[in-house]
Amino acid sequence: MKTCFRLLTGLMALVLLAACVTTTESPYKEKKDEARALELSSQLARSYISRGEWESAKRHLRYAIDTDPKNVEAHEGLALVFQNTGELELAEEHYRKALRYGADNTRVRNNYAAFLFGMERYSEAANEFELVTEDVLYEGRMNAFVNLARCYEQLDRTEEAAKTFRRAFLMDKQSTAALFGLARTHYQLGNLPKAQAFYDEYLKHAKTQSAASLLLGIKLADSFGDKNTHASYALALKNLYPKSREYLEYRAYIEQRQP
């Protein structure tokens, strides 16, 4: 009888010990599972965004924000979704939240600056791009300088634009965006030899000419009395971009030059 009692007591002790161990480990396991579920939702959301499946992306991003209201990537993801679906007020709301919770996240700030540029809010965009370019370790810094220069152009700050395009050029001397920006701003500033030099360098690296580059090429050709290049570029502009803003500008430009 005593043996049975000892055996029963021992079994109860083991059960109690097992229960204690399970209770102690459970919170850690739950946190680990929650973190894993959050990471999985973020991965799925990024995948859906890349494929343009906005509703599916929103479902996973909402889960991420419900789980962690200060999740920077989730707010940025929702901003991108709403930006692409035309819900611009909601996009800006989530960009601002992403920056509130992750003020040092340069990628988010760069995306917000590009959003502001697309909204033609050039002064605000310039302020954000200026902050982006201050991050010397940001891998997209050269492009940020290009976009900052484009903001300055829109704000009629042409000299600053030229200096900023040069910053981008010094970081990548084969950048067609920086080279064309330098050619365009130096033309606007009346420095024609520099404009032509940067334009010629641009042509060495550009695979195809845009409507804007053809129009600038025409204007430079006229500045140097190069009628053949004018005729060649004008024909290309008419054939390749007949409905472009640049072609309409070219026609107005020709009318102004006629006696």
UniProtKB/TrEMBL annotation:
Alphabetical keyword list: Repeat, Signal, TPR repeat
Entry-linked Gene3D superfamilies: Tetratricopeptide repeat domain
SMART domains: TPR
Organism of derivation: Litorivivens lipolytica
Spans of repeat TPR: 38-71, 72-105, 142-175
PROSITE patterns reported for this sequence: PROKAR_LIPOPROTEIN, TPR
Pfam annotation, one family: TPR_16
InterPro entries (UniProt xref): CellSynth/LPSAsmb/PSIAsmb, Pilus_4_PilW, TPR-like_helical_dom_sf, TPR_rpt
Name of the protein in question: Type IV pilus assembly protein PilF
Signal peptide: 1-18
Superkingdom of the organism of origin: Bacteria
